[in-house]
Amino acid sequence: MKPASRWRTPSTMPLRSVAGLFLIGFAVALNVAWFSREQAGALAAFDNALLDTLVKYSASGRTADHTVVIDIDDVSLSALGQWPWPRYRIGALIERVVDAKPAAVGLDIFFPEPDRSSLDSIRATFKRDFDVDVAISGVPQGLLDNDGYLGDVIGRNGVVGSNYLYFDHFNRTSVDARNGVVFDGRLDLPLQSATGILSNIDAIASQTRMTGFVNNRIGEDGRLRKLPLLIREGKTIHAHLSLVTVMRALGVASATLESDWLGSSIRVADKRIPIDEAGFTTLRFNGDQSRYRSISALDILNDRFRPEDLAGKIVFIGSSAVGLNDIHNTSVDPRFPGLKVQSVTAENILEGVSVRIPSWTSKAMLFECVVVAALMAAMFVAVSGVYVAFVGTTLLVAALLLVGVLPYVIAGIFVSPGPAIVTVCLLFVLFFVTRFVIEKRRALVWRRQLENARQVTIESMASVAETRDPETGAHIKRTQHYVKAVAQRLRETGHHLELLTPEYIDLLFISAPLHDIGKVGVPDHILLKPGKLTPEEMVLMRKHAGYGRDIITSSSKRIDGDNFLVLAGEIAATHHEKWDGTGYPLGLKGEDIPLSGRIMAVADIYDALISRRCYKEPFSHAKATDYMREMRGTTFDPVVLDAFFEIEDAIKAIAETYRDEAEAEHLSGDSTSPMAELPEPLRI
Known about the structure:
Elements: H1 15-37, H2 41-57, E1 67-71, H3 74-80, H4 87-99, E2 104-107, H5 119-130, H6 146-157, E3 160-166, E4 182-185, E5 193-194, E6 196-198, H7 202-205, E7 210-213, E8 217-218, E9 224-228, E10 230-233, E11 236-239, H8 241-250, E12 254-260, E13 263-268, E14 271-274, E15 280-282, E16 294-296, H9 297-301, E17 314-318, E18 327-328, E19 336-337, H10 338-351, H11 361-382, H12 386-411, H13 418-468, H14 475-492, H15 502-511, H16 524-527, H17 535-542, H18 544-556, H19 565-574, H20 595-610, H21 621-629, H22 638-646, H23 648-657
Parallel strand pairs: 1-16, 1-17, 2-17, 3-7, 4-12, 5-10
Antiparallel strand pairs: 3-6, 8-9, 9-15, 10-11, 12-13, 13-14, 18-19
Helix pairs in contact: 1-11, 1-13, 4-6, 8-10, 11-12, 11-13, 12-13, 14-15, 14-20, 14-22, 14-23, 15-19, 18-19, 19-20, 20-21
């Protein structure tokens, strides 16, 4: 009998188990899909990691063609003074940029408070604090008010201003900020709703024709992947600075909110910008920040630039200075300036390369999870081995990755295979553990069946010998337990530990009954002779050891694997060998005799002495043990015999438990039978 080394197939697996596998698969799929929809924990991290990988390794590496940023960087601040600069300097910077004829200018800076360096502000301060009227002469009227001057520059040149939208209850305002753009179409989109707005002071805001907000959206892991293009504030829909600046460059002031089979989008002239239902766009980068052109504000103010570098470009003016902390971690660069995020967004809009995440992504993920759950359940029902299941699972994961990557590479569409892959991995582990438990139980059942089969086989073979020698009675049971008890004692006292494992001792126990199987080959007139055997008859009697070995060896050849009859054959062939080498059939000596044979010799001779035989009466325990002590070092292995005597009480208990009724009176004292006074040669 062999253990089931392979999993069950559909033809052998109960229908209830098959249904259970499918139900488990669907339950896992639904839970994974739900957690994915909620963007929870590890699933969200997996999706984000996959998206980041695609964005990073699909980056074109090209330098952006349509945008340039004018950076009030640390060098500019060091040379011209720390932030905030006087508003007239910002105005001068804008004038220099506009003179180069860009397509549009977006100002990624807003001014919610008055410029206290304005001459009008200084004069008002002296009047308020000292009641002194300061006379200022020789200054053009436009330069007395820095805020008014900057507002005039912004208004005259059509520069797109900026603001910031709040989402808390502390900053509720009723400012009617002018955004200069109009939206139509699907105005019912569930956009974010801001509670307030922080915009430029009126002197600037009143002259600004178009504005956009500068809010970003940082993920829970601190990484910037997407930003809002639209936010609702009151009844007004506001647009991101990058979007408004692109609209300015395209010469349009209106946009349409649309929907198609992939989801929502913003139509601006001939450009279509994909957004999700909340108005967010997912960014796609050309590469790290060096892929987006930048000119220092100091170079602009000092005329150290080429006007053609700005001509026809969309220009964003802002600051990447470290102190302003407008630096973001992205998939392509851990220190990506917020100012250049404006360039990234504008480039995405103009080139139509924004990542598109369809509105039906959650449904697609649910569908994928359910399908792969069904496939996994079917595979674990159908396959015949764990390695096949592992290969199948690996191929399924690879297929899911391919399904997720190809749409992104071809069309910029991202539907994460993450939930489906997580479903596959969870089910593989779950099904594998379930199968392991099932197979473990089946293996235990099989082992019990095997042990029973071995026991039945050995007892059946032993009963053949017992029928030839009916006076042996319970000899088989007693010797079986003697052998086990002696072997356990040897192990307890530290002898032969490498051999006397619990498994070996158990096998020794069930093999012992076959020690005299060879007696079936001894003629009855010798086996059952009540008197002393002649030398010729003794020769024939001693052949039973060889007969036993041959019988068991012949049977064992038909058994594959762990052959339990090998030990039985060893016992049958060697239990009449003697420690001094005078035994039979091979005349083995000392430790050349297998340990199983040495243990069996002690058990067999003791039981033969205390048992009634056709040629002798039973000996008492005391008489038998005295006789055995005389054979220490000649017939018996001294260590084995000592172990036997160390458990003498247990030996007597075994003999009592499995006694023959006719022999019970001889176990407690000396027999008075004349035949018991002197031992006849043992016919064993």
